[in-house]
Amino acid sequence: MISISLCMIVKDEEAVISRCLDSVKEIVDEINIVDTGSTDQTKNIVARYTDRIFDFEWIDDFAAARNFSFQQATSDYILWLDADDVFTKKDQELLVDLKRTLDLNIDAVSMKYHLAFDEANNVTSSLRRYRLVKREKGFKWIGAVHEYLEVYGNLHHSEAAVSHMPLSHDADRNLRIYENMVSAGKDFSPRDLFYYANELCDHGKIEKAIEYYLRFLQTKQGWVEDNIRACNKLADCYHSLGLKEKELSWVLHTLVYGPPRAETCCRLGYSFFEKNDFQSAVYWYEKAIENKGSESLAFQNRACATWLPHLQLAVCYDKLGQHQLAYQHNESAFQYRPHDSRMLANQKYFENILNMQAGSGGEDHGNQ
């Protein structure tokens, strides 16, 4: 069985740190907490779990802090978490099993990272991140903000997941760091350009976000999944500016980087839906269901591969007069969101139509 050192960087996390540590304290062999300047009760709370608490002067560089935290580890493998991350009971069991069975030849293990949930606790967005890495490999973090762990060698994808459950966060922190980098004249990597554009977009600075997404794509050095996300973000930006032709052109531009992802298919479906071309919309929503994709490191908008295309197909087939198909797709959407008022209303609507057709002996041929 491998041994695991948990390594975390924290600051003012008194509201969530216990929840995180409680979810993993019985599994890891060592807990290392690097505090970057807490002024609340974080360090006192952490002291209940470990005496391995280290101070690190914050220098607007997440990679530097995380690399320092990794230097404190003494176990075979290093597990990293943020204070507002947790392992659910199911994922604790998967982590225990992973610890028991992992081959020591494995250099790094990815885990699912659940980023958002709907009201029924279904995962709505997720990606994979390398969470567990062999200490002796000396893997390093790169990037002052939106940092990433550079790994290589013998890699393994685990079924265990980490759930991100923030109570609050400093929404302006990352933007401040990037703007300080701009003011200091620091060079931006392609990754920095992309994530700075995301921060600008999230803060409503649309024109400047467009500028940086374009600069990112012009480098031709971005990861293909980030290229696709940049195109979708540009589509969002132009949508917010009311420029529908440019919006559609950037949705189509995602196809430069590979086969259409589920999100691209949904976007194309909606473009035809808005034009009342329901048959073409059906084609693309069906493709969204087909192109669910694999469990990769890429960001996944799960709605576009699960309930959303089914809900839209229900509407499209209703418009086309094919009510049995519409009902079936609404039922498929309903499986993902059993309390969604739209799907409940649709269910009653379609059942009434189908019952009337059955009573009159009519057949649901749709538009021929």
TrEMBL record:
TPR repeat placement: 262-295
Pfam families: Glycos_transf_2, TPR_8
Keyword terms, alphabetized: Glycosyltransferase, TPR repeat, Transferase
Glycosyltransferase 2-like domain span: 5-106
Protein name: Glycosyltransferase
SMART domains in the record: TPR
Cited CDD domains: Beta4Glucosyltransferase (cd02511)
Record-listed E.C. numbers: 2.4.-.-
Listed InterPro entries: Glyco_trans_2-like (IPR001173), Nucleotide-diphossugar_trans (IPR029044), TPR-like_helical_dom_sf (IPR011990), TPR_rpt (IPR019734)
The organism's place on the tree of life at top rank: Bacteria
GO molecular function: glycosyltransferase activity
